[in-house]
Amino acid sequence: xxxxxxxxxxxxAETGPAGRAGAAGGSTGTGxxxxxxxxxxxxxxxxxxxxxxxxxxxxxxxxLSPVPGDLTQLATRAVNRASVARALEQLDRFAVQxxxxxxxxxxxCAYDTLLTLMAGEDREETVTAELPRAVTTLRTRxxxxxxxxxxxxxxxxxxxxxxxxxxxxxxxxxxxxxxxEATAGMSPGRLQQILATAGLPTTHDSVTAVEAxxxxxxxxxxxxxLLGEAPPEALRVLDRLVWGPPxxxxxxxxxxxxxxxxxxxxxxxxxxGTVVLPRExxxxxxxxxxxxxxxxxxxxVETAAQYSPRSVDSxxxxxxxxxxxxxxxxxxxxxxAGPAVLRAGGVSIRDLKRTAAALDTDEATAVxxxxxxxxxxxxxxxxxTDERFVPTPEYDDWRTRPAQExxxxxxxxxxxxxxxxxxVGGHDAxxxxxxxxxxxxxxxxxxxxxxxxxELLATLxxxxxxxxxxxxxRLRWERGVASEARGGAGAGTVTxxxxxxxxTGTGxxxxxxxxxxxxxxxxxxxxxxxxHGAPSGRTAPAGAxxxxxxxxxxxxxxxxxxxxxxxxxxxxxxxxxxWTLREAELLGVTGxxxxxxxxxxxxxxxxxxxxxxxxxxxxxxxTGGGDGPGPGTAxxGTAxxGAAxxGAAxxGAAxxxxxxxxxxxxxxxxxxxxxxxIAASAARAAEVLAPLLPEPLDHVLxxxxxxxxxxxxxxxxxxxxxxxxxxxxSKGGATVYRFTPDSVRRALDSGRIAEDLxxxxxxxxxxxxxxxxxxLIDDVARRHGHLRVGAASSYVxxxxxxxxxxxxxxxxxxxxRLRRLAPTVLAAELDPATLLTKLREMxxxxxxxxxxxxxxxxxxxxxxxxxxxxxxxxxxxxPVPDDTLLTATVRAVRAGDRAASGGPGPAGGAGAPPxxxxxxxxxxxxxxxxxxxxxxxxxxxxxxxxxxxEGAADRRLIALVRVESGVVTAYDHTAEEVRTYxxxxxxxxxxxxxxxx
Length: 997
Fold this sequence. Notes:
Strand content: 5-15%
Radius of gyration: 38 Å
Distance between the termini: 30 Å
Oligomer: single chain
Helix content: 25-40%
Structural class: alpha+beta
């Protein structure tokens, strides 16, 4: 028989894109039954080219594990329920709607029928143009097969998406069961009574009765006449059910309107007190549409405010510099007093609060900085008995690099990280609290959501800050989630003894009724009484339900739904997007909400050019009104980008054509970049960022109130010296340091003398050293070291015996239990460190001394972990296969299919399996591995010698699929199946001769 290539079936000229010739050997007719087509999915897969099979495996990598033995096995695996559900989750919203329409359509379904279900009888232009792309998407993923006249949605997808026939649950189409399904089990007498009341002749059996009733409901003219006789109250009941849910509750004695509808089969009973609107009736009332709001194009990413690119880059650079300083402050604090590791892992809430206060930020932001430092490999547990989190040796190298390189290290760790700071404070599946640096923080979707969110920001003009709601709407569309404003149709309580089964809100709207005069419409616009056509309006009702009806295959009544009407998985993706926008601003990837030039380079895009006169490149001005974002309008070109994203599909390409395959980025198309590629992009972004960062300063401004102002970032030696000599009072664009007696004493304890401190301040101050500061230093230095504390347990020594007498007489010294050993020596039972602290609290300035009487220089103890590697991102599912693996897999599957069908094999069609000439191939392990890797790259078959599990030596002719993790996967021409061979069992490799291939 003649088969049609994937996606090359001719679309009917009157309903689909024209000018498409049939496939070679395929039909070129336009009727629903024109030409022959594949009879099964496996048969269609055989008709596909190698490139099309590779695209299928790339879109659904779960089909690769393990490698299918032939195309029949591949087709069987492609309709597995778990695999189909996973494939549906990767579809965009319009592709999901197309699949849902196919699920309620007859099987097989003509393209003309599908077009009516999606675009209505009025053939909405945008839907008509985008439908070929959606069909191609489903066909590429093996969810749809067959020619244009006989489209088959795979059975598993139909089961997942089709309406329930026995319960109130309905998919997002809001359609109920067909007449045939709803009348199953109804008595023949009742069916004949419905026919008679509807004005149809009676029949001899139930089958023909159902057929006659179905024919009535699908005939536009006869249905218009029947509805024209309906009382206004009956039409209002239909209005409540037409867009779903299709089930309603009726009392034991329903009103006349409900009785009129039930008597004519326009409502059919399904259980005591429950009626349903048959699918055929609903489609007539909808004008043939399966969905109330088709969403063929992705919603545009709208602009909230427009700034000049230069101001955005400057704001981003300032925030990037702040990020570097914050991480440095965090690690500097933890190197002397790192928090203890909890028994279950992570940091306690008390330590988190203390760290947030030290960083002068809130706890959520502190969690982000801590997790970022951990992801960058700058922070880890020290692994000691008293386990604490302290900096790693990598921190010492990181802090010596230029500022732009330190920023690059941070963003290169953030972009692919799966550990998610935003989930801290929640609970895992077992109810355990999630703590910072603790287990259970990995969310494998995080890298994809970060990349995609930043990519959407990059679609806006330079300097444009997006509306977060529009970004969320776009990402939900790409994941196949219904728009919040266009969820399901609402329903309220109606009169006449009838109430819908589910739903909230109001569904009323202005419009012309079916009977004489005026009446309520469908809530989405006006409807003409005479023609009973499709609704002319497309606006959502004010009372439409938030979140809409559940996607049956997504939630199915089992997945929890959030307050936003989203499943738990979609709620997580929404939160990941919100966290990405916030974290990108903290890191300086965005500035004022817009993607910066270095942020674009980080994504691998060229940096946006800026005007040389300080304005934006397009000559525009800020629309945000000063520094704050103001009311903006949709970005010019953004709405058009949705249409442009549909590629050639909007220009008339037929379903399945290469041109039609261009379209909005599918959710499953994310291929994570390697760590090397991300680091390279971060390095290039750092080069763009470098000119925008402030240069470190070598001076401060001393003031008479014992403060020093650093008007910018300081050089590291100066900053480290001031950290010892003064206390940081405030941070921001400028840092304010305050000199206190304790801070000056700290500097003296570190080994400095008063003359050193005077010289240091005079050298690095652009203003004269204030006299109060000089007096403070001299006063502290004069008293510093007069008291000496040593180990007895401890003692106090002083040349001034009057000072010792003063200490003994002080009531505050009673707890020290001092006693005089000599006129200049006091003994204590406390250890020297405690005694030093107590005396300082009393207002004295003692110094520690060694056994030889020398002053001990004290500095805070700095701790480091042993060398540590950063945490690796935790991937979910299978990795995206590369082209080499796909090519080898397709070759192996083709070979297996030939062998299964009895066709000629790669050895020239010989009936007997090929055998290796000569003895067992032998080569060194290095040569063996190199030869196998080369064969996998070139696709050449090779002979291998191997040792079986029983210890026997054997020879095999194989076509390699992949070589990884010490295992060779290949199609074995000798056994005619895909097998795996441990690398250590392969004795060698030999090339086959020309006659053996």
